[in-house]
TrEMBL record:
Keyword Transferase: yes
UniProt superkingdom: Eukaryota
Protein name as annotated: RNA-directed DNA polymerase from mobile element jockey
Matches recorded under CDD domains: Rnase_HI_RT_non_LTR (cd09276), RT_nLTR_like (cd01650)
Domain annotation RNase H type-1: ranges: 958-1086
Pfam families found in the cross-reference section: Exo_endo_phos_2 (PF14529), RNase_H (PF00075), RVT_1 (PF00078)
GO CC annotation: DNA polymerase complex
Entry GO MF terms: nucleic acid binding; RNA-directed DNA polymerase activity; RNA-DNA hybrid ribonuclease activity
Domain Reverse transcriptase: 476-747
UniProt keyword terms in alphabetical order: Nucleotidyltransferase, RNA-directed DNA polymerase, Transferase
Length: 1226
C-alpha cells in the first residue's frame, strides 16, 4: 500500500474520476496535487479525505496546489510564509513526517533565496513532492535547464536526497517526447524507508503519478472498526438464538449476570447479523457502467500501443479513444445524476428521501484526526492523542477545579451520611413492570452502541421470554442496590467545537457512548424520578428544559413579553444572560444526592442514583485506538438518560435566590434574569443584588460563571442619553452589548429583531441551495418531494421562534419573503415572473404571515392547555391595554397580538381541554380493555343478520349488565353525540371544531357521568368507534386528553361498587340501540359548552385561516390561475418533472415564451396571425391558426382553459402543445 502520491492533474475538477481511480488503486495516506486550476473560494469535497488548498490568484483558474490527507491519520497543517505555490502538512503514519506539495511554473522565474526559505520552514523529516519543471541528468533528463540547476543547488545546500530514478514523469504531447520534471525530495533520515515508482497511466493528464511506498510496514493505514449491518440481519434467527434464561440472570452475582447476558446477545448477533468490512473504503463512482468500462479499456489499450510504438497514427488513435471515453463518461454522469434526482419522489420514505438529499448536496460525515499541542508539545500518535483528550476531560471534572471556599464547604458537607434506606415502601420503589420495559423500548431511537456493542435494535428483537428475564435482572439491580461495574464505563467520541482550533485538546466536545442495556434501566428510573418531581412540584415553573409540554419558546416569550410591556410603559428593561463554565462536568455529585434527600426521596430510587454516580470512568476513542481508562470524579455522566434530570434538579434552586423585583427563567443551564422599571439606578441595584445572591449560591454549590461569556443588554426605546447599567459579577464588570443570541433568537436593544432576521436570511440562502440542486425544469425531484424538503429544511428554520420575532415590523419580516417565493418557484417549476399569489395557491403553501398567525394561535392555545405553565393565568392588565390604545405605534406583546387574531377569527370563546401532566403513574399499566364478539368477522363479507344474531348471543351472555349505547356524529357545520339508556336518552351538539373522534370519546365520558348518578350496578357501554375504544386500552402522554378523564371516572366508579364494561359493535348493521344512538346524534339540537382538545383546535385554527385565505383568493379575479383553480386545494403533481413544470406554467399563465420580455426589457411578443399579445389563453384557446389542431386533439374548437388545465388535465394537452410547436418554448 502506498504512503504518498504526487500528481500534476492539470485541472482537478475534470479529473475527479481519475483521482478516485488513483486512490482506489494505491490507497494513499497523502496525495499531493499540482495545477489544480481552482479559483479562490473553490473547494474539493472528497469522502474520507481532508483537503488543504492553495488556489491560484486572480479570476482565471491557473496553477494551484492541494494536499489530500486520509482521515485515518493525525495531521496538522503548516503555515508557510512563501509566495510560491506550496502547501505543507505534518502527518503521523509510522512516525511524524512533513509532506509538502510544490508547483513551480515553467515560465515564472523563481529566486533561489525563496526556495531556500521554503525548505527552511519545513519541519524535519520532510518530503517535497511536486512538479518543479526542472531538467537535469540527475533525474533522467538528457539536458539541464536553469530550474534544474536551482533544484540541484537545493539538494546540495540542504543535504537533501532525491528519490527519483530515471523513469519519465511527463509526456509532452506536441513533440511526442517524455521527460522527468516531477520530483520527490526528502531528508536523509527517511530515505531508507521509501521507494518511488511511476504509474504507467497518465489518468487523462500529461503527468504520471509518482507513488512513494513506505517499506516499514505493509499496511500503515488505519481502518474503521467492523460494525453490525442491521439492514441485512436475520432477526428471526437472532430472536431464537438470543435466549436469556432464568439461570443466567438469577444464579450469579450482578456483574456476572450482566456479563452473561452481554455474551449471549453478542454471540447471537455474531451468528445472525453480518458485519461491515473494515478494509480500505474505496471511492465510489455510481455512474460508472459497462460503456464507461469498455471505453476506458480501449483508451488504455491505445495508450499501451503508443508507448510501444510512439507514431503519429498511434497518437491520433489514442487521442480519439481518450476523447470518446471522456464523452461517454460525461454522458453517463449526466444520465445517472438525472435518474438519481428524479428518483426523489413521493413514493419513497422520509428516511430514503433525506439520505438522497444529503448525498446530492455533498453532505457526508468527516472525522478528520488532527494532531494536538499540549503545552506547546506536539502530540502525534493516535494513542497519545486519545490520552491527551481524555486527560483534559478528566481534568475538567476534577474537584481541584473548584474554588477554595467551595472545597471547604464540600469537604464539610460530605462528612454527613445520607441515609436513603428509610421508607423503602414508597410506590416509586416497587419492582419495574413488563409494561414499563416495553414502553421504554418502544420509545428508543437509533443510537450508537456503548462499550458492550449492544444496540437498542437487538433489545427490541428479543422474545418476550428473554425480556421477562432481562426485567428480572433489572429488578435484582434495583432491589439489591448493586450497580454493574461494566455499566460505569463509557466510550468518548471527541467532536471539535465549531470554529475552534483543532490542535487544542480543550476544544473538543465529548460525545459519550454508554451501554444501551443500562440506558433502558435509566429510562425506567428517569420516568419515576420525573413523575415524583413533577407531581410534588419540586421543579420551578420557570424551568422549561426537557419537561413535558415545555420548550425554549416559553423562555423567549417571557423575555419578549416583559420588554414589550416595558416599551408600552416607556420603561427600561435590563437582562443578564449567564454562562456556566463546564456546567455538566462540574456538577457536585454529593450536592445532587443531598437535593434528592431534601426532596424526601428514600429507598431504591435514590440509592440507584447514588450507585449510578459512583466510580464513573471513560476511554476516548480516536479512529480504532482507545485511550487508557480515566476517572470522571465529579459531574453528571455524559450520554446518560438521567443526567439532564439530575442537573436540572441541582440548578433548580438558583431561581429561589432572586429578589421579588427580578424575574428569571431557566432552560436547563441557560439562565437569564431581568428587571424592569422607570429608574435605571433602581434596576442596577436590584440586578446587582440578584447577581450577588446568585454568586453566593454558586459558591455553595460548586458552579462557576464565565465572566467573558456572561453579557448584559439594556432594552430601551428612549432617545435621550442615559447611562448603561454597571453590574459586577465577582470583581469584573458584566459586558453591556447591543444584541445577544438567546436560545437561537437574536434580541437587539430596540427589539426590532432585524439582526435576527438578517442572520436567518443568510442561513436560509445557503439552505436554499439544496432545492436548487434537486430541482430542474426538465428533470429532477417531484414537486411533492421538493415541498417536503422545503418544509423540513427551510420552512422549519423560519418557524422556530416566529411567534416571538413575528412581532417585528412588516418591513423587517418581508426580508424573508423572497426565500419563501424562490423556494416555491423551485418546487413548482414556475417561471420567474409568476405572481406570488399564484405560487401560494399552486403549491397550496400559504404566505409566511398566514403561517406566523397560525403558529401564534397554536402556541397560545398550547399555553391554555397546560395548567402548570407560568403563563396559564396570564392576563394583560387594563392599564397596559389602555396604554396600547393610546400608543398604537408601539408593538404589542404576544398575548395582545394573539387576542387580536382571535377576535378576527371569531375564536374568543373557544375553550381548550386542560392536559393533566404526569397523570399516569409509570409503575402501573393504564388502560381499559373492551369486548369484541365480532372480531373474527370482516364487515365487508358479513351480512347484517349475522351481526344481529351475534349481538343477541352476546346479550344473552351479559344479560345482567345494563346496556348503554353511545355514538358521535359530524357534519360540515356541527359535531354532536348521543347516549341511549334503557329508560332515557341524551344528545348534545358540541363545538363545531371538535372531531368525530372527540365526539365518540365525549359520548363515552358522558355515559359514565350519567352512570355515576345512578345506584351501583353492572353496566356495559357499546360504541361503534373502534379507534375510540382502542385508544383507551393503552394510555400514554400523547393520548386524547378525555381518555384520561374516562380512566379516572371509571376507577372512581369501580371503587363505589360499579362494574362497567366496554364493547365494540359494528355500525349500520341493524343493531337497534346503535341505530337509535346514531339517529339521535345526527338530530341533536341542544348545545353543550365543553372545552375542545388542543389537537382539534389546531386543525380548526388552520381551517379558519385557510377560509380567510380562500376569501382573499376569491377577490383576485384578474389572476390567470384563478380562472382555472377557484378553490385552494392540493392538486396532484405529475410524476414526470418536465410535464409537471409545463402544466404548472400553463396554469399560472406565465411561460418563458410569453413573459421572458419582462426580464429582458423587450416588447411583448405578438401573434403574427391575430396581431395581439401572445398569452397562454390566446395560444391554447383563442388563436384561429391552431383550430385544426384543437379539433384533432380536443374534438372541439370551443373550449376553455379550465377544460384542459383543471385538476385532471386533458390527456391530449401535451400532444397539442407539440403539434403547434409551443411545448419547447414554455
Amino acid at each position: 500500500m502506498a504512503s504518498f502520491v504526487s500528481w500534476n492533474c492539470r485541472g482537478i475538477k475534470n479529473k475527479f474520476s481519475d483521482l478516485k481511480d488513483i486512490i482506489n488503486l494505491h490507497q494513499p495516506s497523502v496525495i499531493a496535487l499540482q495545477e489544480t486550476y481552482l479559483k479562490p473560494g473553490d473547494t474539493l469535497p472528497l469522502k474520507n479525505f481532508n483537503i488543504l488548498l492553495k488556489n491560484g490568484t486572480g479570476d482565471r483558474a491557473t496553477g494551484g496546489v492541494a494536499l489530500l490527507t486520509s482521515n485515518s491519520f493525525p495531521t496538522s497543517p503548516i503555515t508557510l510564509n512563501t509566495p510560491l505555490q506550496a502547501i505543507a502538512v505534518q502527518i503521523h503514519t509510522h512516525s511524524l513526517i512533513t509532506v509538502c506539495s510544490l508547483y513551480l511554473p515553467p515560465n515564472t522565474p523563481v529566486d533561489q533565496i525563496t526556495l531556500n526559505n521554503l525548505v527552511s520552514q519545513l519541519p524535519t523529516p520532510f518530503i517535497i513532492l511536486g512538479d518543479m519543471n526542472g531538467h537535469s541528468p540527475l533525474w533522467g533528463n538528457p539536458d539541464t535547464n536553469t530550474r534544474g540547476l536551482q533544484v540541484e543547488k537545493i539538494l546540495n545546500d540542504h543535504n537533501l536526497c532525491l528519490l527519483n530514478n530515471d523513469e519519465y514523469t511527463y509526456f509532452h504531447e506536441p513533440n511526442r517526447t517524455f521527460h522527468s520534471v516531477d520530483l520527490a525530495i526528502c531528508t536523509p533520515s527517511v530515505l531508507p524507508y521509501f521507494s518511488l515508482q511511476v504509474d504507467n497511466d497518465l489518468h487523462n493528464s500529461d503527468h504520471f503519478p509518482l507513488i512513494l511506498s513506505d517499506n516499514r510496514r505493509q499496511n500503515p493505514s488505519i481502518h474503521s472498526a467492523s460494525r453490525y449491518n442491521f439492514k441485512l440481519g436475520n432477526w428471526c434467527k437472532f430472536s431464537s438464538l438470543a435466549n436469556i434464561n432464568k439461570d443466567i440472570v438469577s444464579n450469579n452475582s450482578i456483574d456476572a449476570a450482566v456479563k452473561n447476558v452481554t455474551e449471549v446477545l453478542i454471540a447471537a448477533a455474531d451468528r445472525s447479523i453480518p458485519k461491515t468490512s473494515n478494509t480500505f473504503k474505496k471511492q465510489r463512482k455510481v455512474w460508472w457502467n459497462a460503456d464507461c468500462r469498455e471505453a476506458h479499456r480501449r483508451q488504455r489499450k491505445a495508450w499501451a500501443l503508443f508507448r510501444r510504438n510512439p507514431t503519429t497514427v498511434n497518437l491520433i488513435r489514442y487521442k480519439q479513444t481518450k476523447a470518446n471515453s471522456r464523452r461517454i463518461q460525461r454522458r453517463s454522469k449526466r444520465e445517472s445524476w438525472e435518474r438519481y434526482i428524479s428518483s426523489i419522489n413521493s413514493t419513497i420514505s422520509s428516511k430514503k428521501l433525506w439520505e438522497r438529499v444529503k448525498k446530492t448536496s455533498g453532505i457526508f460525515k468527516s472525522s478528520n484526526i488532527r494532531m494536538l499541542y499540549n503545552n506547546g508539545i506536539p502530540v502525534t500518535s493516535l494513542q497519545d492523542i486519545a490520552n491527551c483528550i481524555a486527560s483534559e476531560l478528566s481534568r475538567t471534572s476534577n474537584s481541584s477545579n473548584y474554588s477554595v471556599p467551595f472545597l471547604n464547604i464540600k469537604i464539610s458537607a460530605e462528612k454527613k451520611n445520607l441515609n436513603f434506606h428509610s421508607s423503602p415502601y414508597a410506590p416509586y420503589n416497587t419492582d419495574f413492570t413488563f409494561s414499563e420495559l416495553k414502553r421504554c423500548l418502544s420509545e428508543t431511537h437509533k443510537t450508537s452502541p456503548g462499550p458492550d456493542n449492544i444496540s437498542y435494535l437487538m433489545l427490541q428483537h428479543l422474545s418476550d421470554r428473554s425480556l421477562q428475564n432481562l426485567l428480572f435482572l433489572y429488578n435484582r439491580i434495583w432491589q439489591e442496590h448493586s450497580f454493574p461495574s461494566c455499566w460505569q464505563q463509557a466510550i468518548i467520541i471527541p467532536i471539535l467545537k465549531p470554529g475552534k482550533e483543532p490542535s487544542d485538546p480543550r476544544n473538543y466536545r465529548p460525545i459519550a457512548l454508554t451501554s444501551c442495556l443500562c440506558k433502558i434501566l435509566e429510562k425506567m428510573v428517569n420516568k419515576r424520578l420525573l413523575y415524583y418531581l413533577e407531581t410534588n412540584k419540586i421543579f420551578s415553573p420557570f424551568q422549561s428544559g426537557f419537561r413535558q409540554g415545555r420548550c425554549t419558546v416559553d423562555n423567549l416569550l417571557a423575555l419578549e413579553t416583559e420588554i414589550r410591556n416595558a416599551f408600552i410603559r416607556r420603561q427600561h428593561t435590563v437582562a443578564i444572560f449567564f454562562d456556566i463554565e463546564k456546567a455538566y462536568d462540574r456538577s457536585w455529585r454529593f450536592g445532587i444526592l443531598r437535593d434528592l434527600y431534601e426532596c424526601n426521596l428514600r429507598g431504591n430510587l435514590p440509592i440507584f442514583i447514588q450507585n449510578f454516580l459512583k466510580l464513573r470512568k471513560f476511554r476516548v476513542q480516536i479512529g480504532n485506538q482507545l485511550s487508557d481508562y480515566f476517572i470522571q470524579e465529579e459531574g453528571v455522566p455524559q450520554g446518560s438518560v438521567l443526567s439532564v434530570t439530575l442537573f436540572a434538579l441541582k440548578i433548580n434552586d438558583i431561581l429561589k435566590q432572586l429578589p421579588p423585583s427580578v424575574k428569571g427563567f431557566l432552560y436547563v443551564e441557560d439562565l437569564y434574569i431581568s428587571c424592569t422599571g422607570d429608574n435605571i439606578n433602581f434596576i442596577e441595584r436590584q440586578l446587582q443584588l440578584a447577581v450577588n445572591k446568585i454568586q453566593q449560591w454558586s459558591t455553595f454549590n460548586g458552579f462557576t460563571f464565565s465572566t467573558a461569556k456572561t453579557s448584559c443588554i439594556h432594552f430601551c426605546r428612549k432617545r435621550r442619553l442615559h447611562p448603561e447599567p454597571e453590574i459586577l459579577l465577582g470583581s469584573q464588570l458584566i459586558t453591556v452589548v447591543n444584541e445577544v443570541k438567546f436560545l437561537g433568537i437574536t434580541f437587539d436593544k430596540k427589539l426590532t429583531f432585524r439582526p435576527h432576521v438578517i442572520k436567518l436570511r443568510k442561513k436560509l440562502d445557503k439552505a436554499l441551495n439544496i432545492l436548487k440542486v434537486l430541482s430542474n425544469t426538465s428533470w429532477g425531484a417531484s414537486r411533492t418531494s421538493l415541498l417536503r424538503v422545503y418544509r423540513a429544511a427551510i420552512l422549519s428554520k423560519m418557524d422556530y421562534g416566529c411567534v416571538i420575532y413575528g412581532s417585528a415590523r412588516q418591513s423587517v419580516l418581508k426580508i424573508l419573503d423572497p426565500i419563501h417565493h424562490s423556494a416555491l418557484r423551485l418546487c413548482s417549476g414556475a417561471f420567474r415572473t409568476s405572481p406570488v399569489e399564484s405560487l401560494y395557491v399552486e403549491c397550496c403553501e400559504p404566505p409566511l404571515d398566514h403561517r406566523r398567525k397560525m403558529l401564534t394561535l397554536h402556541f397560545y392555545y398550547k399555553i391554555l392547555s397546560l395548567p402548570e405553565h407560568p403563563f396559564f393565568k396570564y392576563k394583560q392588565s387594563q392599564f397596559i391595554l389602555r396604554l396600547q390604545k393610546a400608543r398604537p405605534c408601539v408593538i404589542p406583546s404576544f398575548f395582545t397580538r394573539a387576542s387580536e387574531f382571535l377576535n378576527n377569527l371569531d375564536l374568543k370563546n373557544l375553550q381548550v381541554v386542560s392536559l393533566l401532566k404526569y397523570h399516569l403513574t409509570p409503575w402501573n399499566s393504564h388502560g381499559l380493555k373492551f369486548l369484541n364478539p365480532f372480531k373474527t368477522f370482516e364487515k365487508a363479507n358479513t351480512a347484517p343478520i349475522v351481526y344481529q344474531q351475534l349481538f343477541a348471543d352476546h346479550r344473552d351472555l351479559y344479560h345482567n349488565f345494563i346496556p348503554v349505547f353511545t355514538d358521535g356524529s359530524r357534519s360540515s357545520s356541527s359535531t354532536s353525540f348521543a347516549c341511549v339508556f334503557i329508560n332515557s336518552t341524551l344528545s348534545f351538539q358540541i363545538h363545531s371544531s371538535s372531531s368525530i373522534f372527540t365526539a365518540e370519546i365525549t359520548a363515552i365520558l358522558h355515559a359514565l357521568y350519567q352512570i355515576s348518578n345512578s345506584p351501583p350496578d353492572n353496566y356495559i357501554i357499546y360504541s361503534d368507534s373502534f379507534s375510540a375504544l382502542e385508544s383507551m386500552t393503552s394510555l400514554h402522554r400523547f393520548s386524547h386528553p378525555l381518555t384520561f378523564n374516562i380512566l379516572e371516572l371509571h376507577d372512581k366508579l369501580a371503587c363505589r361498587g360499579f362494574s362497567v364494561l366496554f364493547c365494540w359493535v359494528p355500525s349500520h348493521v341493524g343493531i337497534s340501540g346503535n341505530e337509535h344512538a346514531d339517529n339521535l346524534a345526527k338530530s341533536a339540537t341542544d348545545s353543550l359548552n365543553c372545552p375542545v382538545p388542543l389537537s382539534d383546535i389546531k386543525k380548526y385554527v388552520k381551517i379558519k385561516l385557510h377560509s380567510n385565505w380562500q376569501s382573499q383568493w376569491n377577490l383576485t379575479d384578474a389572476n390567470k390561475l384563478h380562472s382555472i383553480k377557484h378553490l385552494i386545494t392540493c392538486w396532484p403533481s405529475l410524476p414526470n418533472r418536465k410535464l409537471d413544470t409545463v402544466l404548472t406554467r400553463l396554469r399560472i399563465g406565465h411561460t418563458r415564451f410569453t413573459h421572458r420580455h419582462l426580464l429582458l426589457g423587450e416588447p411583448a411578443p405578438l401573434c403574427t396571425a391575430c396581431q395581439c399579445q401572445m398569452t397562454v389563453l390566446h395560444i391554447l384557446i383563442e388563436c384561429r391558426q391552431f383550430n385544426n389542431q384543437r379539433i384533432r386533439c380536443f374534438h372541439s374548437s370551443c373550449i376553455t382553459l379550465k377544460d384542459i388545465l383543471h385538476k385532471d388535465h386533458h390527456p391530449q394537452l401535451f400532444t397539442f402543445l407539440r403539434m403547434i410547436g409551443f411545448y419547447s418554448l414554455i
